[in-house]
Each structure stands twice: as structure tokens, then as C-alpha cells.
Fold beta-glucosidase.
Amino acid sequence: MRRTALLASAALLAGLLPWAATARAADEPAPVPVDRFEGEIPFATQPAEGIFTWGGDGDDPPTLRLADRADAPEGGKVLAGGYDISGYGGFTHDFAATAPAHDWSAHRGIRFWWDGRNNGRKIAFEIKDGGANGEASELWTTSFTDDFTGWKQIELPFTDFVYRTDYQPVGGIDHVLGLKEMWGYALTLPAGTKGDFALDDVELYGTADQALRATVTTGAPVVPVQEGRTAEVRVTVATTGDQPLADPVTVTYATADGTATAGTDYTPVSGTLTFPAGTASGTTRTVEVPTRRDRAAEPAETIPLKLTVTGAKAPTETPQVVVDAHGLPYLDARLPVRKRVADLLGRMSLAEKAGQMTQAERGAMTRPGDIAGYALGSLLSGGGSTPTPNTPEAWAKMIDGFQLRTRATRYQIPLIYGVDAVHGHNNLTGATVMPHNIGIGATRDPSLAQQTGAVTAAEVRATGVPWDFAPCLCVSRDERWGRSYESFGEDPALVESMETVIQGLQGRADGRDLKRGDKVLATAKHFVADGGTAYGSSTTGTYTTDQGVTTVTREQLEDVHLAPYREAVDRGVGTVMPSYSSLDIGDGKGAVKMHARGDMIDGVLKDRLGFDGFVISDWNAIDQLPGDYAAHVRTAVGAGLDMMMVPYGYKDFTAALIDEVKAGRIGEDRVDDAVARILTQKFRLGLFEHPYADTGGAAAIGSPAHREVARRAAAESQVLLKNAGGLLPLKKSEKVYVAGSNADDIGNQTGGWTLTWQGASGDTVPGTTVLQGLRRAGGDVTYSKDASAPTGGYDAGVVVVGETPYAEGVGDVGNGHSLSLSAADRAAVDKVCGAMKCAVLIVSGRPQLIGDRLDEIDALVASWLPGTEGEGVADVLYGERPFTGQLPVTWPRSEAQLPVNVGDTSYDPQFPYGWGLTTRTRIPEGGTATLRDLGARAAAAERHGDDRAGRALVTRARLLVQRKAGDHLTQAVSRPFADADHLLLTGRYGKAVEKLAQAYRAA
């Protein structure tokens, strides 16, 4: 429907809206209606024009109707509705994407009539500026309070709108409210209380104010300066569209009372800056504030510079000059870290200590001054929480901006910023994305694991991030778990062997390398036994396994789940994150949330294992503890947690912690221990000396050298499960038919935790798909995703199938996911493998049930989630590298077998743990006698501590067994075969060959 109302003449509008004509000033233009709600705008969605609702949950969108009202402010109808919102919800009016955007730049603001309920609730009002359409625009927001009864006209000047920092549909465009390309508006209704509303006559009013088009900014909200030097505060005037000023702008300035003393610490200044009409946009003037030297050691002191602006929009904050802290022992880098920590800790107030124990999400920083106001110790980016644009430069600028805020605190304690870089810097567009841990476990290559960690650390630190929430050291015991791909495998010995990744991330175990520009603080997670949660035990939403209960004996806990943490502590890991899950070890306590288990965190991790880093909670995990919020804080801190990840609740946490300490329910010594641990890592990272980003390594992000490491990891992670007739490797002279949902989908190939928490299918990140890798290798390749193209005349088929991305409990089997291939994948396998010799590659985070089609498949490859370098997969398919990967988890015959793991009494899988054929040109020959000889030599290597020789001898024996067993894997073969791989990883080479000899005899 055409928006005739929007194009109506001013005379007609005045006739329709007589009160508007009489209320406006004589020199103001007539208001221009946006919505009259008389039926001229339909309930519809993009690309058509329309009004539509939205919400966080299925029941959150409000109900809407056009209601007849005798008291309607305009016409006979109003927009009315009801709401009962638990998360968030509201409604939008989007203009048609097929029509030109609207120009609102001639007006002062937008107004409407609201039927007040006098409930005191705030209602957010949002306008949509620029971009392709209403759903790909830049969002600007303000709010009004419903503190009246009956109809009232609400006026919202455009100068009141601020850029949304918590959410932008396209990440932001130019961060300028231009008003020349407007796409509509939206209202967010109050959550938590049932209510109704009525709205009428949305219109534009007034004459544009230069204060909207002209803005005064300062170079930075905080201006640090060394004592005795002169601070320079840059004051800049800018206009929308970079036009010269139409009218003069004046800025009156004066230093004001802060923590610094006028006349002693600085020389007061005042004056006026004038920007005449015609001044070019971007013109900058400087205010100088001289500071004085008194030679005494002091904490930092602040000098606010108050600005009064006429003719333009004033800065959102009063800039502060800060005289840097100086002369205090903790600032002396020559002192031992423990002495620096003790000095600083002894100076801090309780509020400052509480701030150090608090971590907030960057998206919560709508008031960045809270960093100093609450003395926050840490910020993080959750999955998908990225700057705009998502570039290394923007990351560094964002984090430096947050870090600058800490300069306004007394002791200028730097933030420690953290991200989930779980397979490369997976938050950053263009970063090198490694295979997920399940694939790294398949490589059985500790040296390569360390290299992947080193590449990740270098790329993360180059964006200004010094802390990585990785690696995950869970021992995954049930592949129905949605986090199973975060595990290196089901065997604690395998997980321990891959912990070289910690050295890749951190450097040497004593922490001396943490100051380097290519190292980050690592996090061992999720302590402890999250990989043992039982299917069906989760009580979190629709999850089935994640955040559930692990029920084990103390012996099982020690041998299976705790063992990787012993190794991590020995390797000097800097932080540990507890699990969301609960632990039941038969001690009479039942299932207790790990964030409440002081016996495990304080008792085992810190006291018995000697962990000297700090413990960080998981995202809002303390909210899952029993009792009220004060009890959550008391329990978690008492259990040994040192820092709380409270993404949007940092104010509540700090207040509760302070209250609990003052009341004596949390001991000051516990707080001091927590803060000392946190400060120790900040000192080790060199953040006090160099708080800002060192971007010297940014040029290497996504570089060929880094991608080569990822390519090699992708190649070594490929596990060849079957290879009838030696189909693989392919020859480049062969005509190859490629099909399947995951052949050309880099989003599926990289999986969850890629750019966003859950990941996404499609062209999400730069890289090479499997199909592109095959083509770049020079293969003669034809591609048909659904295998609908004719299949005649090909030498071989490659069908790439598997899963779509997921993360955590969202990916639990039974929560919309299964271990079976999709109908489309099954059809593609059937068609291609029915027409030619075929290799099936399964791109997935866990085994997929393939037994019913195994006979028709010539070659089967577990590709896991290989990351961005699909050329690594092509390398093994074409024989540039041999297949060498081994199963890091048991591949089940059916879901009914689960959980099934190496060491189980009943063990009869499709493929055993450790299975993995090779395409090396030379396969060892021999039989029983050869195995006896290998066993004797392996035992000798074990006695002499010759690990390299021992591993090589066991590998030869394994290949002999695999060649004999072929496709006829029975329980008698599988169980000792899997046991042998565990024995190999624990250094018992002679016993490993004995087990392989047993499997050989049974084959």
C-alpha cells in the first residue's frame, strides 16, 4: 500500500490534526505523520511495509490490534495491544524495502500519543537510520517513562537518541544519525509484568536543531598525564555529512573538583573556545591543563574538565585529566611479582577488591564510565560479541578504549580482557580457524597441538586480548553431549597428551613468556567431570546432557576426569573455569553444582594440586546455585571462585559481595586471596607496564604461515575408517563426482563457536571448503550438492555429509539433534555410492551412525570439524599427505550402545577407539612372530625410556592388526585394540603390543 498519508499536503495535515497546527510555533513546519493507525499501514513484514511484533521467546511478542476508541487523539482508531514478556519483546513499523527511504532531517524529533498507565516503567523507542532496509539499518534509541494516566503526547527530540552499543543488526554503519535515510521505528515494551498499551498518531515535528547536525567531542574521555607535565584535551566539532558549521559553536571550559587538589596538583584553567559559522567539520582546538610535581609517591588523581556547549550537541561525558599514579612499590617492575601484589593489595579498598573479582560483558558497557566507577577487573566478549567492523584494528581500538577507563581509578589496575578462542581466534573475521579439539585429538600429534595453540595465541594477543578461555580439558564420555567436539577425546591419557596446547598458548610453565606479544593466559575448563554428565540428567531448558549430573566414584573421578587438570597445573595453566554441571561422588551430598563444590575447587584444585592461578566462573553460572542472590555470591566465593563472570549483573554482584564481607559472611582473607591471584596474573602478563594492545603481530593474522599450520592440522585430523580396494588416495587424473551438504559449506565445516556462539551454515568466514580444496589441488571435479546431476562416466564419488553447527546444550542429542544423517545426506550417499565407487566424508563434531550404509561405501572418513583450511582435507584425499589420524572417541554401532568408551567391559563398536587406516606407501609386513618381536623391542624401549622408539613399534603393530582385521571388527578384536591405544598413551609400550597381538589372533 502506498504511504499517501506521508505525502499529503501541509494544508490537509493541518485539517486532520487541528491541535498540532495550533500548538506549534508560527515559524515551525506542519508535522508530518508517520502512523495514523486508521488502517493505512498493514500488519506485514519486510520487504513490504508493515507493523510486526517480535520477542526473545515464543510467548514474548505482544498482541496488536487496531482498536476503535472514542477518545482517540487522532481519527477513530488507535494501535492497542497486550503483553506478558519474560525476556524481551515489542513491535516495529518498517517502511517498505522496495521504496525509497524517508528523509527526516528537516525535523526536530518524533512524537506520538501514549495512553499512560502510571506504572513507572521505561519504554524504549528506537529509530532505524541508513542501511539497506529496516532490518539492515543502524539502530538509535531513547526512552520515556510511563508515569502518567491517560493520553499524553510524548516528544522525543532526535538529539536524545543514542547509538545502540548492545545490538546492531549489521554491526553499525557509520555511527552517525544522518536522518536522511530512515526506515521506521520500534518500541520495546516492559518485561516481567503483564500489561496493555495504546498508541496513536506517530509524527515528525519541529525544525531541525543544529545541535543534531553538529557535535562537540573530546579526543578521549580520560586523558592520562605524568605528574609535572601538561595534559592536552582535544576538543573537536563535527557535523553530519561533514558540512561546515551553519551557526557558531562555543565551548566554555573550566577545571573542576576531582581527587586532585587545585594549586597543589595542577594549575586551574578556564576559558572559551569559539568555532565560527563556516568552520570546517573536524576542526580541533586544544585545552591545556598543567600539572605540578611534588615528588611524593601518590595514587592517580583526577581533574574533571567541565564543558558547556552552545550551538551543538555536547560530549556525553565530562573529560577527566588523570595524573598517573607514581612512585609506589607495586609500579616497580624490578620487584618480584609477589612483592608488587602484596603492596598493591594492602592499599586497596573493599570496593576496589570487589571490582577486581568482577567480569562484565562488553555489551553491558552502555556506560563505559562504570569500568572506573566499579573498578572492574575484567571484561569479556561472549560468543558473537564483536566490535564493528570485526577487524583486528577495531578489536584493538575497542579494548584500548576500555583499558583507558582504568586510568581514571586510584591505582590504575588494568583490565584483563577474555574471549573464547577455542579453535583459533574464532571470534574474528579473517582469523585462522583450527579444527575443533576432537580433530586435534585425532591427530595424536602433541607437537602440532602446541603449534595450533601458538598460532591462536599470536592472533588473539595481536588484537589486544591477553586471556583465552581455552583449552577445554573435558574427557567426553558420551557423544550425545553437545560439547563433545570441544574435547580432545574420551581417554584422559589422550587429553593429557594434547595439553601441549597450553604451552602453545602461554609459553613456558613458569609464566615468564606471558609478557610476550604472541602469548595469552590460558584457561583449563570445565573443572571437573563435565564430560561425564549423564544423558537425561540436565535440568536446563530443553538440554538433555549439558549442565547435567556426573555420577562417578572417587576413583573414577581421579583417574578419568581429574587427571587432565593435574597435567594442566603442572604445565602452569593460569586460570581454571568450573563446569555448569553437578557432581555426585557418593559422599552423601548428592548432586552438587561444581560452582558450589569447595571440596573440589579449594580442596583439590588449589590445595592438593597446588594451582596458583585464579578461578573464573562460567557465564552467569552462580545464578544456578540455590538460595537468593546473596547466597549465590557467598557460596561461590566460599567455594574458591576468584572472579565471577556476571556479564550484565556486575552492579548486583559487586554490591552483594561488599555487603556479604561487611556482614562477616565472607571473610576478608578469602577476598584478599582471590584478588592476589588475579593481580598476580595481570603482573605476569605485563599489563601494568603495557596495558594497551601490541598490534605488532596483526599482519600475521590469517597469514599463509598460520593457515599452513591449520591446513596440516586438518590433514592430520582426518581418520580413514574404511578403504576397500584402496580407493583412497584419489588420482588427479580421475573424474570425481562431489556431492553432499557439507562439501561446499564453510560454516558447517568450522562448526559452532565460529564468529558466533552457535556458529552458522553458509559462507560465514574466509577460508577454503572441501570442494574448493579439491579444485585447487587440480582435480577433475564435478559438483552437485544433492546429487541431482547425472552420475554416469565418473571414476569415483566423494560425498561430504554430516552435521550443521551447534554449541553446548543446544547441540545435545534429543534437543533437536541426532547422530543420524539427514534424509538429504542419506539420499546423496545412496545415489552416488549406488552409481560408482565412493568415499564418504563425515564432517561433524561427533560420530554419526553409518552402519546401515557401510556395505555400499567403499571408503569412509571421519573429517570432524576441520576448520577453514579445506585444502588440508584435499591433501589426504589426493595423497599429498598420508592419512594418519586415529579415532579420539569410540565410533558406535547404534545409539543404544551409548555411552561406550575404551576400557568398557562390554565393548563392540563399529570402529574402536584408536582405529585409523593409513595410506602411507609402505605398510609393515609380518604376523604373529613379528608381533612377538615388536613386543619385546617395545618393552625394552619402555625400560630405557625411549618413548619415540616405543611409539613407533606400537604403531607398526597397530597397522598389522588393522590390515588383518579389515572390515571384520568383532568385540574380540575391538576391545584389546582400543586398550592398546590407551596403553600406548600412558607409556606402556610392551603391554600395548601384547594387547595388539591379542587382537591380531582374534581377527
Summary: The CA atoms of residues 11 and 30 lie 8 Å apart. The longest strand covers residues 195-205. The domain at 718-893 is CATH 3.40.50.1700 (Rossmann fold). Residues 1-23 have pLDDT under 50 and may be disordered.
